[in-house]
Write the structure tokens for this entry.
Amino acid sequence: MPKLWNETIAAHRDAVREATLDATAALVAERGLTGVTMSEIAKHSGIGRATLYKYFPDIESILAAWHQRHVDEHLRRLAGISEQQAEPGRRLEAVLRAYAVLSRERREESELASHLHRADHAVRAHQHLHQFISALITAAAERGEVRGDVPAGELAAYCLHALGAATEARSNAALDRIVTVTLSGLRPA
Amino acid sequence: MPKLWNETIAAHRDAVREATLDATAALVAERGLTGVTMSEIAKHSGIGRATLYKYFPDIESILAAWHQRHVDEHLRRLAGISEQQAEPGRRLEAVLRAYAVLSRERREESELASHLHRADHAVRAHQHLHQFISALITAAAERGEVRGDVPAGELAAYCLHALGAATEARSNAALDRIVTVTLSGLRPA
């Protein structure tokens, strides 16, 4: 097959996947996790039921793919924010702040999140995030901006857990304070 | 009825409840959450099936009661540790350290915990714990040992989240470091 044809097929596949995930996200937002059926997803996405089943065997697999897309977007967003800052200490601070904001947004999707967070892709994404934050911490520690008496991996775990408190933040000011306190814990003794 | 008789009935009720919860805990530990039936609990606890159903309508209610007992024990343990220290800063540190150890132990019971943590009693216990830590923080802040620029309630949420990192601590030394870093975040700027 010519290359162009393969590309067309790939683009079509992507379009079907995206349409399915968009329709599922909209339906879950409207009716909750348990109120969605394969037929409704087919109807909402404009994809034939038979075609839908070729892409996804069941609701569970669609939700997993949707969550993976969502998590990937977050990781990309954090990577982008990191690149906007040249200085390691600023970089770490900007990423942790963005992560706190994402944690806070996540509050609303808690039913779905707790259902999906144990999935393999979510565990991998968490590991990826942990490595990403560890690397930022290592870079900042080399410049003396972050304490050197605790391994970077442990400090990264501390940050990710501490910033989970952002889910309870009732205002932007409260969210800022959580980030400030978490950063204080990272500072050299 | 004479008072003694009421006391005897109350003691008997407590004994039946305790025996049921102990048997359930042992069976869940052995077979997992989904491998336990009412008949087996009756058999293991030495309580007749009919009697068991008078106390608990279903497995779910037994698990909730068992979890509540477990959570209450933890809260009592933390309160006891608090009372052993006279000085507010030490008190806060000792309680946070004990909470980190409990968080780490909780790792093993994650299947059951995630199932039960949304239950009403667990939410109440979490609120109780949050208030308890907030009070310790307020007392330490009044003596200038904890930062005063962030409300005690927010600092308590920060502590409870940050110490969740203890679930990933691979050694006692790592657990100590998590506590140290979390306490650094509390220190006056």
Observations:
- Residues 138 and 151 of chain A are 9 Å apart (CA to CA).
